[in-house]
From TrEMBL:
Molecular-function GO terms, alphabetical: DNA binding
Record's protein name: Transcriptional regulator NanR
Domain GntR C-terminal residue range list: 82-210
Keyword tRNA processing set for record: no
Coiled coil: none
Taxonomic lineage of the native organism: Bacteria, Pseudomonadati, Pseudomonadota, Alphaproteobacteria, Rhodobacterales
Record-linked SMART domains: FCD (SM00895)
Species name: Jannaschia rubra
Length: 218
């Protein structure tokens, strides 16, 4: 019983370490590593690493190369477009469901946080503004995904969020982009507040198209 529990704990530790390395950019898009390098980097036993890699491969975050190692997902234009399109579709549905169910509490806090980051960016902001902006940016996407109310959809959303994190780490959140991104999100928040599902879906589409443009994807 204790051995089984220990194996599970090691598995959880390895998966958490892998997710953290991907989200933080410690593992970069397109990077190739042998299994021994991954074991050293994540500081976990190889059996636990193999299980974590298997989950990462299932989510499209990694590609396993037999007898060679693993490669982190590449941020190709078609991959970026598909990941952002996937997010847009689920964001739009999350907005529709929140509005249909009247579950639009918490918008005042979201609006205040977005406006504060936008205003800080307009005035030059602090050196650590981009990381703060990413956190605030994700807060609206989390809000919309939570509106789906379906564990299968939210699980798929979480996997795609990891893919977008890998892409985002390869394309730094430029301070010039912060103002427009926050303003695009504020339009979504205002539409949610008005319970206007059509306007919310359109605002989310505009945000999708602008993100593609800023990331240089036609």
């Amino acid at each position: 019983m204790n051995a089984t529990h220990d194996i599970r704990l090691l598995g959880d530790k390895a998966q958490h370490a892998l997710w953290t390395a991907l989200r933080s950019g410690q593992l970069r898009e397109g990077q190739f590593l042998s299994m021994s390098q991954l074991v050293e980097l994540l500081d976990c036993p190889i059996a636990a690493i193999r299980d974590a890699v298997k989950q990462g491969s299932a989510w499209g975050l990694l590609t396993t190369l037999p007898k060679r190692g693993v490669q982190v997902m590449e941020a190709r234009p078609e991959t970026i477009r598909e990941c952002l399109d996937f997010r847009m579709a689920l964001d739009q549905e999350g907005a529709r469901r929140r509005i249909a169910e009247g579950a639009v509490e918490g918008l005042a806090d979201l609006r205040q946080r977005h406006a504060a980051i936008r205003d800080a960016a307009r005035t030059g902001g602090a050196g650590d503004l981009p990381p703060q902006a990413i956190t605030v940016d994700l807060s609206l996407h989390d809000y919309l995904s939570e509106g789906l109310g379906n564990s299968l959809l939210t699980g798929a959303y979480a996997a795609n969020r990891m893919r977008i994190a890998i892409i985002q780490n390869s394309r730094p959140f430029l301070q010039d982009r912060i103002v427009s991104a926050m303003e695009e999100h504020l339009v979504v928040i205002d539409a949610l507040d008005r319970r206007d599902a059509g306007a919310a879906a359109e605002a989310i589409r505009v945000h999708f198209e602008q993100t593609l443009r800023w990331w240089g994807v036609p």
